[in-house]
Amino acid sequence: MCGIAGWFHWQQTSVAQQSVLQQMTDTLRHRGTDDQGFFINHHVAFSHQRLAVIDPENGRQPMTVDYLGARYTIIYNGELYNTAELRRELKRSHVTFKTSCDTEVLLQAYVRWGKTCLDRLNGIFAFAIWDEYNEELFLARDRLGVKPLFYSEVGGQLLFASEIKALLAHPKIEPVVDLEGMADIFGLGPSRTPGSGIFKQIHELRAGHALTVSTQGVRVWRYWQVESREHTDSYEDTVSAVRDLVTDAIRRQLVSDVPVSTFLSGGLDSSAITAIAANYFNETSQGTLPTFSIDYEGNEHYFKTNHFQPNSDADFKSIVASQYATDHRDCFIGEKDLAHLLKEAVELRDQPGMADVDSSLLWFCRQVKKETTVS
User: Fold this and answer.
1) Of the residues 222, 247, 280, which one is the last residue of a structural domain?
2) What is the pLDDT of residues 10-31, one digit of tens each?
3) Contact at 8 Å (CB) between 139 and 160?
4) Which end of the chain is less enclosed by CB atoms within 10 A, N or C?
5) Taking the C-alpha atoms of 249, 255, 256 and 262 in order, what is their torsion angle to the nearest 10 degrees?
C-alpha cells in the first residue's frame, strides 16, 4: 500500500508550507518505505509515501502529464486490475506512455475521459488529481472502500489523507472526539458510521464516492451503487459464473513486479485463493508460490474441538500446501508479542479495533514482509 496526503487552499499555498506537508507525510511512512515525493503550487500541496509494486523505477509520484497546454498531477494509493485493457484503449486514442505502471494509465484515463473515467476502473484506489486547466482538485475512492481516504474542511482549505493521523498532524485540526465519535467507538467499534472520521473535524470519503473542490466550493457525489436483482440463472450457470469471476479476480491481483505470496489459514477463502494463485504461478512459470500461516505458540497443546471449530486450522493448511506444493512457512506468535503490539495496532487504526486480532495481524504482516511485498 501507499499513503497520500495534501490540501487545496481557496486562496493560496506556497513552498513555505512544505514543513507541514512533511509532518503529515511522515505519519504515513509505515504505508510504504520505498520513496517519498512532493508537489506544491499556488492552490494545492500533494505528498506521496510509496510502496513500489509495479514499475519501481519509473512509477514515482506525484506524477504529472501535459496535454494540450495544461498540466495534470496525480497521487494515488491502490492498484488497477484492468490496466492492460485501459492502456490498449488509450493507445487507440494516440496516448503514448512513458512507464509501465498503472498510475500513468489512471492519470491518462482522467485526462482523456474526465470524471467518467471512474466508470471504467476495475481496482482498489484512493487518489487525488490536480486539474490545472479547470483549477479543480478531484478525489475518488474505489467502489467498496478498500483503500481509505479522509478529509477535512478547515481554515479556508480542504485537507485530505489516507489516514486520520496525517490530518491530525496539520496544525489547523484539533484532536477532538465529539459525542458522535464516542458513539461510534463504543456503539459500533471496531466499525464506524460510513462517512465518519471519529474526530470532530474529520470526514471519510465514502466508498463509491468522489469529491471535487475548486474556487466554486466542494461537491461530493456517489458514482456507483450496488444493485439488487432477482437471480434467475440455473444452478449450473451460477457455479460456472462464480468460478470464472473468482478466478479472474484473483489472477488479476497477482500481477506484480515484486514478490507475491498468499496468507493460508486453511479456511475456505484462503485455500481457494492459494489454489488459484498456485495454478497461475505454475502456468506462467513463476516458480513456487510462497504461503504463510500464523498460529499461537502452544496452540497444538491447548486446542480443544468444539461445535464452532471442530478441527484445527493446521489440519487443512497442511493439506492445501501439500496439494499445491507451495513454499509454506508457519509463523508462531507468543503472548508477549501479542500484548506488546496492542497499543501500536490501535495507533495504526486510529481507533480501537479488534484487539488481539489486530495485534496478531500486525505481527504476522511484519514477518511476511521480510520475504514478500504483496500478499
Assistant:
1) 222
2) 877 777 789 999 999 999 999 9
3) yes
4) C
5) 50
Angle at 316 between CA 251 and CA 329, to 5 degrees: 70
Q: How many CB atoms lie within 10 A of CB 250?
A: 18
Which DSSP string do the residues of 253-273 spell out, in sequence order?
TT--SS-B-EE--SSHHHHHH
Higher pLDDT, 352 or 273: 273
Question: Which residue is catalytic, options 2, 117, 331, 365?
Answer: 2
User: What is the per-residue pLDDT for 33?
Assistant: 85
Please state the length of the chain: 375
Residue 331 among the catalytic residues? no
Nearest in space to 3 (alpha carbons), one of 35, 39, 43: 35
Q: Are residues 86 and 205 in the same domain?
A: yes
User: CB-side exposure of 350: number of CA atoms within 13 Å?
Assistant: 27
For 250-304, the pLDDT digits (tens) are 999 999 989 999 999 999 999 999 999 999 999 999 999 999 999 999 888 888 8
This prediction has a pTM of 0.93
Q: Per-residue pLDDT tens for 74-101? A: 999 999 999 999 999 999 999 999 999 9
Residues 256 and 207 in one domain: no
52: domain CATH number is 3.60.20.10
If one counts the domains in the chain, the total is: 2
Tell me the one-letter amino acid at 235.
Y
Phi, psi at residue 272, to the nearest 5°? -65, -45
Last residue of a domain, one of 171, 193, 222: 222
Has residue 230 been placed in a domain?
A: no
Which residues form the domain of 161?
3-222
Would you state the pLDDT for residue 100?
92
- The Cα 164–Cα 173 span in angstroms is 11
